[in-house]
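fyi for ur records
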Amino acid sequence: MSIEGSEYRGFLARRRERIGKGWHKFSRNPLSIVGLTAVLLIIFLAVFAPYVAPYPKHAGKFVNFAEASQPPSWKYPFGTDVVGRDVLSRILFGYRFSLVMAVIVLALVVPPGVVLGLIAGYLKGKWIDTIIMRITDIFLSIPPLVLALAIASILTPNLFNSMIAVSLMWWPWYCRLVYGITSSLRNEFFVQAADVIGAGKGHILVREILPNCISPIFTKMSLDVGWVILLGASLSFVGLGAQPPKPGLGTMVADGMKYLPDQWWTAIFPAIAILIVVLAFNLLGDGLRDLLTAEEV
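which gave:
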C-alpha cells in the first residue's frame, strides 16, 4: 500500500513539475499573457452582458430616434446607430453570440473529425482509409468561406444555420490533423504491444493513440475559436448569419458601412471588436501551444 502511495505521489510530483515548466514558458511570453487576459475579459463581458452593458435593451427590438446617430460621448462611449441604439451595448451582446457560435461549432466538428481521423489513420492503406480521406480532401480543396457561403445560402439565414454551415466545412481540418498523428503512431512499440496482448481496436484508439492527440487538438481548437468567429462575422456581413435585431458583429459592420464616413463609429467600433477577439484567441493559442509542448517534454 505504501509503495502504491509513493508511486502516486511521484506521479503527482512529476505532473506538477511539467505543469510548472509549461506555465513558466507560457508566462515568459508577454503576448500570451495579453491574449489570456483579453480572452478572459471578453468571456466575462459576453457572459455578463445583460449586467455590464450600459443599455441592455438596445440589443433587441429598440428604437430611439431622438438620439439616433449620436457620435461617441460620455453617455454613449461608442455612439449610437441610425435608430438610436447604443453601439457599445450591442457589441457586448455581439460577443455573446460570437462565442456561443464558436463553442457550438467546435463541439459539433471536433468529435466526428477526431473519430474519422483515428479510424482512417489506424487503418491506413485499407478501403475505409481511402474513402474517408478522399472525402476529406474534397472538402479541403474548397475555400472554407466559399463553401460556408454556399451552404448558408441554401438554408434559411439565421444564427443556427450559419453554425451548421461552418460546421459542415470545418471537420476535415481535425480529421486531417488526427490522421497524420495516428498514422505516425500506429507502428510505435506501445501500440504494437497493446495489439500483441489482445487489446481491441477501440482500446488501442481511445486509450493508446487518442491521449497523444489531445495537445495538438486543444491547440488547434484555441486557434480556431478566432477563425470561427471571423467566419461567422463574414456570414453575418453578407446577411447569412444572425438576423436583425440580433447584434451580430458582422451585421453591425455591414449596416454601419452604409453611413461611412460621416457616422464612422457605427462600422469602425464593431470591426475593431472583431479584430480584438480574433487576435486575442490567436495569441492565447500560441501560448497554449508552448504550454502543451513543454508538458510533453
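The chain has a mean pLDDT of 86. thats all i got for now
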